[in-house]
Specification:
2 domains; seven-stranded parallel beta sheet; binds uridine-5'-diphosphate; 338 residues; UDP-galactose 4-epimerase, domain 1; Rossmann fold
């Protein structure tokens, strides 16, 4: 049976993808160098090739040995401030790796390619909700490394007959509803991760970066999408391509925003723990409001969200954090309750 190659399949989003594909009865093979992924996130029977997704001859071999017919490419580096300090590292890990992978796909006749992109390609949007045809003006090497990959994919598709779906993720959050995997990166800076770390007593407080924005409560607004819904969007993208769909670029969000303060409140409510919240200075480079226009995605893919609820996202993130904390420290310390 033909297989789907998932690069970065041992990572946060990739592992949700691998489980979703395996549960749907697909044949899957993972290439992951385990630099930020965890082999234990993978189902037992799914083959893991521990290697760099940019190792072109190895990927060609994997394609041949497993009969790969589609590639879903998650592997890459994702930390915006790190990309400012090490831009060439980001152009290597993201842009050059994607180039190698596309080349391997073209040489081996793999006709379908799904690519993890990001709302960071838009930079500071002129209009929100932001549409896919908005001007792309990334503010970081991370955003550029993804945009350059999108451009290569577009050009390769025109020249070599590859079909692709580019998915531009908004704020991915939550964890596996069954508790098998979630965000496990040490030192992650994402809002919900920080909030659940505070709720589990691993941090004394959470800072709110900016409460003087011209938004209803003064804090920034984000479009959070549950990681399991995002994985399902990739499955829908695969079905779309298998059904002969033309190459397309799609926003991946729910199309509505929650403020930073609302998000922290949701974590307080679901945890029942009244951890300290401190109002702080704006974080340099933050965009005020980032919300997807999802009309193209909803019109193109046979996809409907299952977890479009901030409290559900917060509850899953919290349950995962508690599990992680128990595994790492053997207990859950409770933050002071009100
Ligand atoms: N944020 C915050 N406190 C934190 C972490 C994040 O106030 O400890 C804010 C951040 O300033 C931004 C929003 O939460 O307005 C989302 O930030 P995150 O880093 O999660 O994702 P981004 O949208 O920057 O990719």
């Amino acid at each position: 049976m033909a297989a789907v190659l998932v690069t970065g399949g041992a990572g946060y989003i990739g592992s949700h993808m691998v489980h979703a594909l395996a549960e749907a009865g697909e044949n899957v093979v993972v290439v992951d160098n385990l630099s930020t992924g965890f082999a234990q996130f993978l189902p037992q029977h799914v083959p893991l090739v521990i290697a760099d997704a940019g190792d072109e001859s190895l990927v060609e071999r994997v394609i041949g040995e497993h009969g790969v017919e589609s590639i879903i490419h998650f592997a890459g580096s994702v930390v915006v401030p790190e990309s400012m300090r090490d831009p060439l590292g980001y152009y290597r890990n993201n842009t050059m790796t994607t180039r190698s992978l596309i080349n391997a796909a073209v040489k081996r006749g793999v006709g379908r390619f799904i690519f993890s992109s990001t709302a960071a390609v838009y930079g500071n949007p002129d209009h929100v909700p932001v549409r896919e045809d908005a001007t792309t003006r990334p503010l970081s090497p991370y955003g550029f490394s993804k945009l350059m990959s999108e451009i290569m994919l577009h050009d390769a598709a025109s020249a070599y007959g590859l079909n692709y779906v580019v998915l531009r993720y908004f704020n991915v959050a939550g964890a596996d509803p069954k508790g098998r995997m979630g965000l496990a990166t040490i030192g992650a800076t994402h809002l919900l991760k920080i909030a659940v770390e505070a709720a589990t007593g691993q941090r004394a407080k959470i800072d709110v970066f900016g409460t003087d924005y011209p938004t209803p409560d003064g804090s920034c607004i984000r479009d959070f999408i549950h990681v399991a819904d995002l994985a399902e969007a990739h499955r829908a993208a695969l079905s779309y391509l298998r059904g002969g769909g033309a190459s397309v670029t799609l926003n991946c969000g729910y199309g509505r925003g929650y403020s930073v303060l609302e998000t922290i409140e949701a974590v307080r409510r679901v945890s029942g723990r009244n951890f300290a919240v401190q109002y702080a200075q704006r974080r340099p480079g933050d965009i005020m409001t980032m919300v997807a226009d999802t009309s193209r995605m909803r019109a193109t893919l046979d996809w409907a969200p299952r977890y479009d609820n901030l409290e559900t996202i917060a509850a899953h993130a919290l349950a995962w954090e508690e599990k992680l904390f128990r595994e790492r420290h053997g207990e859950v310390r409770h933050a002071a309750s009100a």
